[in-house]
Write a structure and sequence with these properties.
The complex is a heterodimer of chains A (182) and B (53). Helices cover 0% and strands 51% of the residues of chain A. Chain A has 182 residues and is mainly β. In chain A, a hairpin with a 2-residue loop joins strand 12 and strand 13. The two termini of chain A are 30 Å apart. The longest helix of chain B has 8 residues. The chains are: A mainly beta (182), B alpha+beta (53). The interface between A and B is medium-sized, with 19 and 16 residues.
């Protein structure tokens, strides 16, 4: 059983109460939501920031250098200014799903880095390849404190020669979304 | 000459693996160029600014 608050199509807002300690919200006759008995922030689309940026041109990365990748083109950005200068500094504490990829001709032990606060957090490696270019993806769940934590994407070019990234919305990109608020 | 090439000319015995494990050259895309972000080589000293100039 539960105490139910219902928005009806005939009588406006109605309620029925019991002593179960369970609260449910209903719209019409069929849509019922049970409010969980936990402490937290209800997540709706309006407070779940997300963005997707991609790199347009080529970015030179010298041999054996780990370089921050810059992204200038936005596919979408609902973060309200949390993304700036290819750095994501979320103002909502929680866990963020981060996706990134770098397309480049580098080989060897090269990798894309999801960097948190200037340090490697997770790396996305590819085996040594002998093709024209390779996309190095990296994915991670990253906790951010909502104030000082920030995320950037780096690429470590360990192929032994100077290389350049290959821009494109499907090739070199940086995305994130809040999946669980603190 | 890149920073990597300058360092290799100072310490020819460095391997590419050293640049993955104990040495990190970094570029923060802030217009300041490549720099040594980490030097933890067990025997070879970090090159001085004069050597890299």
């Amino acid at each position: 059983m539960a105490s139910i608050i219902t928005a009806t199509t005939t009588s406006g807002l109605t309620q029925s109460a019991d002593n179960s300690g369970v609260l449910q919200l209903a719209s019409g006759t069929g849509n019922l939501v049970t409010v969980p008995s936990v402490t937290g922030t209800a997540m709706v689309s309006g407070n779940m920031p997300t963005f997707s940026y991609w790199s347009t041109g080529s970015q030179a990365i010298n041999a054996s250098v780990t370089a921050k990748i810059t992204y200038t083109n936005s596919e979408w950005d609902t973060s309200g200014g949390m993304y700036s200068s290819s750095r994501f500094t979320p103002t909502i504490a929680g866990y963020y799903q981060v996706n990134a990829a770098t397309c480049i001709t580098a080989t060897g032990n090269s990798y894309t880095i999801i960097s948190k606060n200037g340090s490697d957090f997770k790396r996305g490696l590819q085996p040594q390849a002998s093709v024209n270019f390779v996309t190095y993806p990296a994915h991670a769940l990253v906790y951010c404190n909502g104030s000082t934590d920030y995320i950037e994407i780096y690429f470590s070019n360990n192929g032994g020669t100077n290389q350049s990234t290959i821009g494109g919305s499907s090739l070199t990109y940086f995305q994130a979304i809040l999946v669980r608020a603190e | 000459m890149t920073l990597y090439e300058k360092i290799k000319s100072i310490h020819p015995n460095l391997t590419d693996n050293d640049f993955i494990t104990v040495i990190r050259l970094q570029n923060d895309s802030d217009g300041k160029g490549d720099y040594i972000a980490k030097w933890e080589h067990p025997t070879l000293p970090r090159p001085t600014a004069e050597e890299l100039a």
